[in-house]
Amino acid sequence: MARHPHPGHKSSLSDMSRLSTSLKALINAPAARPSTVPAPANITSVYQKIQETAQSKKISQPSWVALSTAATMTMNSPESLAALYELASTNPDKQVETAELMREVGLKCISFNGIPRTINCLNAFRASLPDSVGSQLSRTPTRAPTPENISAISDRGHALWDSIYRPFEKKLYNKLADSHPDLPVHILHSNYGALLSDPERSTGASAGRILTSIIAVSCLRAQSGVGPQVISHVFGLRKALEDGSWVNDVEGEEAARWLASDEGNTWIMNSVDAIVEAISQGAGSNFAPARGKL
Fold it and tell me: Entry's Gene3D superfamilies (predicted)?
């Protein structure tokens, strides 16, 4: 039997297309921190110190830029990303390359921070770029799955997973499956395969094995509350030296070994802490903060 709409149905649908003033106020309540975070006055000097230490240790620009981008994305501060780009793009010949790298790092942050902060930060970052740079950024997607490449995506995911977690890669997979049978499936194929591993391509930028571990450590350190995962990815960075997968990334052996050492690991985390301290103005991570009353 056909169901007839209630006489008030049309008006109720119209009401559903609008939010009440009180609901809007609740969504935008200051305690909910609904907006991105402005750049603090000292953020460029924080990035400069990270840059200077990297240069003194002969660490490549992509490594310190990836670290700084990942921590800044985690702190949800697109204005600070713009300041970072300004510092990192003083060489006119590298401006497009730097922008491509920063947005590739931002994309990979999805695996650790989730989608919303990456959307907000990358949208604002793109808008902040000079037209001469933005117009040259790649518009060609490189991660679309097809019947022809789906097996290769899976293979890449397994290879990266094994590289980071061996000799515990199977044990970890099974432990995650105990929590939910699709948890390791999603992590392995949608994150390690489709996102964190790099597809073969001739456009855009790649953040390889070393950079991906730097991104992971930086995001997780900036979040707070996920110490076990920080430890896993610190070891993951070191595994890149053990299995030789560092070779195809941006660093030479001396720099890669320093980044994987206690001193290098400490520098990464102290640098992240400095970014968090500056952007939060001493309040700490805003990723999962203690909340006041709404």
Answer: AhpD-like
Helix or strand run (H / E) with residue 42? none
Backbone angles phi, psi at 186, to 5 degrees: -65, -45
Query: Quick check: is 103 in a domain?
Result: yes
Tokens of 148: 């022809």
Tell me how far apart the alpha carbons of residues 28 and 21 are, in angstroms, rounded to a whole number.
11
The number of domains in the chain is 1
pLDDT digits (tens, 9 = 90+) for 217-272: 999 999 989 999 999 999 999 999 999 999 988 899 999 999 999 999 999 999 99
Residues 6+ apart with CB under 8 A from 213: 164, 233, 236, 237, 240
Predicted TM-score of the model (pTM)? 0.92
Whether 185 is in a domain gets the answer no
Asked if the structure places residue 23 within a domain, the reply is: no
Q: Is residue 33 part of a domain?
A: no
Alpha carbon separation from 188 to 58, 88, 116, 184 (Å, rounded): 33, 33, 21, 6
Q: At what angle do helices 209-223 and 253-260 cross, to 10 degrees?
A: 30
Q: Cα separations (Å) of 185 from 154, 232, 256?
A: 10, 19, 30
